[in-house]
Design brief:
Elements lengths: L1 E3 L9 E3 L2 H9 L7 E5 L4 E10 L4 E5 L3 E2 L8 E6 L5 H12 L3 E6 L9 H22 L6 E2 L3 E2 H7 L6 E6 L6 E2 L9 E6 L7 H9 L3 E4 L10 H12 L3
Parallel strand pairs: 1-3, 7-8, 7-13, 8-9, 8-10, 11-13, 11-14, 12-14
Antiparallel strand pairs: 2-5, 3-4, 4-5, 4-6
C-alpha cells in the first residue's frame, strides 16, 4: 500500500500517519509488522513498517528511501478553462496519471464553472487531494501542484518571458499547426486550452502575445477535458513512456 504524507519524511524516524493516510490504512486493516510505502512528493518512496494501530492513530517506522521512477521527460503544465460538473476532477486525476507537472485552473469569458473566494479555495484543495490519491495509485512520487484559480488575463500578464519554455495554444482556429514536432530536450512545456465553449478570438490573441503558438490536435473536435490529456498521452509516446 502506498500512502501520501504531506510532510518531509526522514529515514529512521517514527511518526503518526496524518489523518487521511491513517484512515486509509485502518480501512485496509493493517496490523503491526505490516509493510507500507510512503511518499512525501519529493521524488522518493519510503518503505515503512507499522508499529501500532489504534482507534485514531497509526504509528510507523520510516526506512531507507528508494528513488521512484515514472516522471516524464518533459515537465508539462496544463492551463485550462475549467470544465463544469465533475469533469475537472477527471482532468486532474487522469493528467496526474499521465505525468503532468502542474495544473492551472483558469476563468475565461466562456467559462461555465465560475469560482472565487472560499469556494475556489475549497475546490483547489479538493483537486489537490485528487492529485495525491492519483499518485498513490499510479506510483508517482512527485505530486503535481494545482495552482489557485486565476482569470486568464491576469495569469497571462504574470507569465515570465517564454525563452526558457515552449508554450502551446490548443486551438481550432485556421492556421494552427499540427502537433508533430518533438519538444526540445529538457524543455519545460505549458499548454493553454479553453472551457466547453473554447477561448474567444480576443483571448487567443492575448495568448499569442504571451508566447503561445497555436497547435491543432487533429481533425476531430475534442472536449475541453480531453484536449490536454491528449497532449500528455502524445508526449508520453514521444518519450517512449
Amino acid at each position: 500500500m502506498r500512502l501520501f504524507v504531506a510532510a518531509p519524511l526522514r529515514e529512521g524516524t517514527e511518526l503518526a500517519l496524518p489523518h487521511g493516510a491513517a484512515r486509509h490504512a485502518q480501512v485496509r486493516r493493517v496490523q503491526p509488522g505490516d509493510a507500507l510505502r510512503l511518499f512525501d512528493g519529493g521524488g522518493c518512496d519510503w518503505p515503512a513498517t507499522v508499529l501500532a494501530v489504534g482507534r485514531s492513530e497509526v504509528r510507523v517506522q520510516v526506512g531507507t528511501p528508494v528513488a521512484a521512477a515514472g516522471e516524464p521527460r518533459w515537465p508539462l503544465t496544463i492551463a485550462l478553462g475549467m470544465p463544469a460538473n465533475e469533469r475537472m476532477d477527471a482532468v486532474v486525476e487522469k493528467a496526474t496519471e499521465l505525468g503532468v507537472a502542474a495544473i492551472q485552473p483558469l476563468l475565461t469569458e466562456r467559462s461555465v464553472l465560475r469560482l472565487a473566494g472560499e469556494r475556489a479555495q475549497r475546490k483547489v484543495a479538493h483537486w489537490q487531494a485528487v492529485a495525491e490519491a492519483a499518485c498513490e495509485q499510479c506510483g508517482r512520487a512527485r505530486v503535481p501542484q494545482v495552482a489557485p484559480v486565476r482569470p486568464l488575463a491576469e495569469w497571462l500578464a504574470a507569465l515570465p518571458a517564454a525563452a526558457a519554455e515552449q508554450r502551446w495554444l490548443l486551438s481550432l482556429q485556421p492556421g494552427a499547426a499540427a502537433l508533430a514536432a518533438t519538444p526540445r530536450a529538457a524543455a519545460a512545456l505549458t499548454t493553454l486550452s479553453g472551457p466547453e465553449g473554447g477561448l474567444t478570438p480576443d483571448e487567443e490573441d492575448a495568448a499569442r502575445r504571451a508566447g503561445f503558438g497555436p497547435v491543432a490536435l487533429g481533425p476531430r473536435v475534442l472536449r475541453a477535458d480531453t484536449a490536454p490529456l491528449a497532449v500528455l498521452a502524445w508526449l508520453a509516446l514521444q518519450a517512449g513512456d
